Amino acid sequence: MNIQTLNNCEFYNIFLIILFFFLRCNAGVIPSEDLTSDKKSVESRESSNMHTDESTLPCWHREDYTVMGVCERCEYYETNVFQYCKITGYKLLLKCKESKVNTYKSCELTGWPIEKHFWVFEGVMFFLCVISCLVVFFRRRILDAETRRKVRLQIENSL
Fold first, then answer.
1. How far apart are the first and last CA of the chain?
2. What are the residue ranges spanned by the domains of the chain?
3. What number of CA atoms fall less than 13 Å from residue 70's CA on the CB side?
4. Of 4, 9, 80, 86, which one has the fewest beta carbons inside 10 Å?
């Protein structure tokens, strides 16, 4: 198949595919691995909101803790009520070792959830690309068959 036999739809699809890959490669959609650098800024924002009195600080400021869950999105009502949800909109379940208190801390969503959203987007875009190419291919075959039929009828009528 040479370049002159391609119709406008195929040029359009090829252009969209090239544009998509250009944007994907240059838009910085894939997050970098060093997304934890913002944790210090979140903790400094949290500590600036708290009093410096030791008794009013959360237990995770005063003692060691273990992480009991993953960083998850706060519910709508929690964002209006709790301070840890007002900061980033995400919460992390902690258990303080000495006081054995379960508490939440503000966190930022990083790593795999963001990467998962990216790969879901990539999969959907690839699926749409395959579907549009198949539609163009079969539409082209139908139009070529119709053109051959019309030419055959014109030749039969001229004889």
1. 31
2. 38-109, 111-159
3. 7
4. 4
CB 94 within 8 A of CB 102: yes
| Residue 66 region by backbone torsions, left for phi larger than 0, else alpha for psi between -120 and 50, else beta | beta
Cα separation, 63 vs 134, in Å, equals 61
Higher per-residue confidence, 26 vs 132? 132
Residue 86 near residue 105 (C-beta atoms within 8 A) = no
The separation between CA 12 and the C-alpha centre of its own chain, rounded to angstroms, equals 26
3-state secondary structure of 141: helix
Q: Name the band, by pLDDT with cuts 50, 70 and 90, for residue 82.
A: confident
